[in-house]
Design brief:
Elements (H helix, E strand, L loop, with lengths): L1 E5 L5 E9 L6 E4 L5 E3 L6 E3 L3 H40 L3 H23 L9 H24 L1
Antiparallel strand pairs: 1-2, 2-3, 4-5
Helix pairs in contact: 1-2, 1-3, 2-3
């Protein structure tokens, strides 16, 4: 750990971890609490993170957002089908309810296998809400089968 206090350069105090690069004679600075430090020549500043690091972070965030949007859209379809299955059940259209629920479960499995396997944090929110609709349908059919058995 290297701590440096630079009072002449605007009273900037930084805590840095300096790591020697094997391919360069310069020291790479990582884990800083500030973005820039004064260089030894004049008062020019150096960025402590490479631009490629920001590009990588941007690409990761864009990919996460793309997956999130996909989960939201596909989960809406699952929830809509599950609700339609519930409405069909209320109308005593058991065949239609079963077909709609089967489609909803296929869509949910596709979301789970394709997207949530890659990004499990996206399980919360839209996907959970859609699965609640599917669970509610299953609860209704279980309650109905118990009522019919009596």
């Amino acid at each position: 750990m290297l701590s440096a206090s630079l009072p002449a350069a605007g009273n900037v105090c930084l805590t840095l971890r300096a790591i020697k690069s094997a391919s360069r004679s310069q020291t790479k600075l990582l884990n800083t609490s500030r973005c820039c430090i004064p260089s030894a020549i004049g008062m020019a500043t150096k960025a402590l993170l490479d631009e490629s690091d920001f590009q990588t972070m941007g690409q990761d965030m864009a990919r996460y957002d793309e997956l999130r949007e996909s989960v939201i859209k596909q989960s809406r379809d699952v929830g809509k089908l599950a609700k339609q299955a519930i409405f069909s059940l209320h109308r005593s259209d058991f065949k239609g309810a079963s077909d709609k629920l089967e489609k909803a479960e296929k869509f949910a499995a596709a979301i789970r296998d394709d997207i949530l396997a890659e990004e499990p944090n996206l399980r919360h929110g839209s996907f959970s809400a859609a699965m609640e609709e599917v669970k509610f349908f299953n609860t209704l059919t279980a309650a109905q089968s118990q009522t019919c058995a009596l």
